[in-house]
C-alpha cells in the first residue's frame, strides 16, 4: 500500500516544479509579448500620424466630428454624466445636494460652445489667432454681453481650490507674473490670488503675439507642446475676464495645438492648470491628446474627415434660413 506521506511529498514537489516552469515561461514570454504589443502600438500610432499629415489644420481640428465634439468642451471628469451634464447641472448637484437645479444648470451651454467651436474652426482661414478673435470667442461662450462675467477683470482675483497638485513653493518658483500669492494657511483649502492687471486684453494680445513669434521656427513637437502649454497656462492665470475664461481658453488651447502640429486634447480637468506646474500641465495635455486620438480612431472619421460635418452643416444652414423667414 502506497505511503500517504510519500505521495503527499511527491505531489508537493511536482507542484513546485510546475510553478518553477510556469514562472520561467512567463519570464521568457513577457518581454516578447510586451515587445510585440509595443510594436503594434507603434505601428498604429505611425499609421495615425501618417493620415494626420495629409489633413489641413482645419480638418484636423474638426476631426472628432459633430457627434463627439462635446467631449472637447466638457471636462473629462464629468463626461460620465453624458453630454448634457452642464445643461442640467449634474456635476454641481452631485457635489452639493443642497444646490438648486436652476442655479447650477446652464441650458445653453452646449449650443454656445458648439457655436464658439465653429468660430474657432473658421479662424484657420485667416491666419494666426489674435486678440480680436479671442474677444469674439469669449463673447460667444458667455451668456450675453450684459452678463457681469463677460466684462474684463479689474483688480486682484482669488481662486479657491480644495488642494494643490504641486506645492505652493514650486508654483511660485515658476515666477508667473499673473500669480500674486498663494495662501495655504487654511487646512484643505488653497487660495491662489491672481495679480491685478491694468489692461487684460492688451496682455492677451501680447501673449498670443509672443507665442506665434516664439514658435515660428520651432519644428520639434515636444518643444512646440511646451510652448503651447506655457501660453495656455498664462492665459488661464491672466484670467482676462470675470468669468467664462476656462471654457474660452480650452478652445484656444486646441487651436494652438493644431497650429503647432499637434492634435487637439480632451482635458480631464482644465481648472487644474492653476495649481499644476508647467511640466505637469504638459503631461495633462498629453493625456488629453491620447483620449482625443482614441475617440477619433473609434469614430472612423480619420478616413473621411469632412463627411461627418456634411449633415451638421446642412442642418445649420436650414436653421439659419428658417430664422430669416
Give a quick precis of the structure:
The chain has 325 residues and is mainly alpha-helical. It is 59% helix and 5% strand.
Helix/strand structural class: mainly alpha
How can the largest sheet be summarized?
3 strands, antiparallel
Q: What is the quaternary state of this protein?
A: single chain
Alpha carbon gap, first and last residue: 102 Å
Number of helices: 14
Supply Rg: 25 Å
As a percent range, the share of strand residues is: under 5%
Walkthrough of the structure:
The termini are far apart. This protein has a 3-stranded antiparallel beta sheet, with no helix packed on it. It contains 14 helices and 3 strands. With 325 residues, the chain is mainly alpha-helical.
List keywords for this structure.
single chain; 325 residues; mainly alpha; 3-stranded antiparallel beta sheet; 14 helices; 59% helix
In terms of topology, how is this protein built?
Blueprint: H1 4-53, H2 57-61, H3 70-73, H4 85-88, H5 90-95, H6 101-104, H7 109-122, H8 131-141, E1 157-161, H9 168-172, E2 179-183, E3 190-194, H10 200-214, H11 221-238, H12 245-259, H13 278-299, H14 307-324
Antiparallel strand pairs: 1-3, 2-3
